[in-house]
Amino acid sequence: MQLTARPFAAIVLSGLALVTVGCSRQDMHDQPKYKPQRPSEFFADGRDSRPEVDGTIARGELNEDVAYYNGKDNLGKDVDAFPIAVNKAVIERGRQRYDIYCAPCHGRLGNGMGMIVQRGFKQPPSYHIDRLRNAPVGHFYDVVTNGYGAMLNYSQQIQVRDRWAIVAYIRALQYSQNANVNDLPTEAKAKLPPAGQAMGADMKDAMEHEPMAPADSDFKNFPAEPATPAGVPGAMGAGAHSRSQADSQAKPAAAHKGQPETK
Ligand code: HEC
């Protein structure tokens, strides 16, 4: 006992000594210095912060590639060609981002009938109108980057590369509704039914209906609040409420029972 008490006292004392020394040595903290955005009599312009040297660019923000970052050519016109290589992975990524950020208004098919529009937001034009089918890819990039009329911009939410991926997917959507048979590769053309053969009813149906979004009529009878059928065990509402109360009452008792005796 005696042996262990002595080193213990030594540790406590040296700890105290450190605290006292720490408190008395404040000079590094108190040295004269300028704080950001404070006035100064030293510089002619009266500010302590120095302006950036002209042309200063933060690391990683050179953004030299105007076509890639702005979607414009050197004359400020929308670019007509993708500044990234477009492949299936890019289009898949674009589809995923499009379904998150654009489909709520533009619809999964790009027809401008997304859920938010069906609930009253201004209806955007369909991507399948001639003007937008003929618009250069830079225009779509510009709309996402800077917004357009009632549409806000998505430059904060969507990174540059993803914006291009979305534009690539919009082009795919446009093709999906307006493909020309001559755009098909030869082997795909060979698989088409012979010219003049009537289109099957199922195929026609698939082309006329948006595959993912349910028709508006599906929601007509959808109750706003979950129905609460009386006395159905497991149903939402009164029944479920009393059941969960019973659960919470049962828990402490069960936990107590399971605990080993300590005394
Ligand atoms: C909140 C709803 C909403 C969302 C989300 C939205 N848009 Fe729009 N978009 C609109 C509206 C509304 C317009 C029409 C704006 C106007 O004419 O005032 C529009 C117009 C457009 C146009 C047509 C511009 C033109 O030349 O007529 C494009 C292209 C477009 N949006 C792309 C996108 C893309 C890509 C996304 C996803 C990154 C997106 N939008 C997300 C509502 C939305």
Secondary structure elements and pairings:
Elements: H1 2-24, H2 66-70, H3 88-101, H4 103-106, H5 115-118, H6 130-133, H7 137-146, H8 160-178, H9 186-190, H10 201-208, H11 238-258
Bound molecules: heme C.
Heme C binds at residues 101-102, 104-106, 116, 121-122, 124-125, 140, 143-144, 148-151, 154, 158, 166.
Describe this structure in words.
The chain is an all-alpha fold. It has a domain at 85-182: Cytochrome Bc1 Complex, Chain D, domain 2. It has helices spanning 2-24, 66-70, 88-101, 103-106, 115-118, 130-133, 137-146, 160-178, 186-190, 201-208, 238-258. Helix 7 (137-146) packs across helix 8 (160-178). Heme C binds next to helix 4 and helix 7.
Précis, in short:
This protein has 263 residues and is mainly alpha-helical. 44% of the residues lie in helices and 0% in strands. Bound molecules: heme C (HEC).
SS strand fraction: under 5%
CATH superfamily of the domain at 85-182: Cytochrome c-like domain
Structural class: mainly alpha
Question: C-alpha Rg, in Å?
Answer: 34 Å
The total of helices stands at 11
Instruction: Report the bound ligands by name, code or SMILES.
Output: heme C
Largest sheet: none
The count of β-strands is 0
Q: Give the overall form.
A: elongated
Low-confidence stretches: 211-263
Rounded average pLDDT:
78
Give the SSE order as H and E letters. Answer: HHHHHHHHHHH
In percent, how helical is the residue content?
40-55%
Distance between the termini: 29 Å
Give the second-level CATH assignment, the architecture of the domain at 85-182: Orthogonal Bundle
Under CATH, the topology of the domain at 85-182 is which? Cytochrome Bc1 Complex, Chain D, domain 2
Q: What is the CATH first-level class name of the domain at 85-182?
A: Mainly Alpha
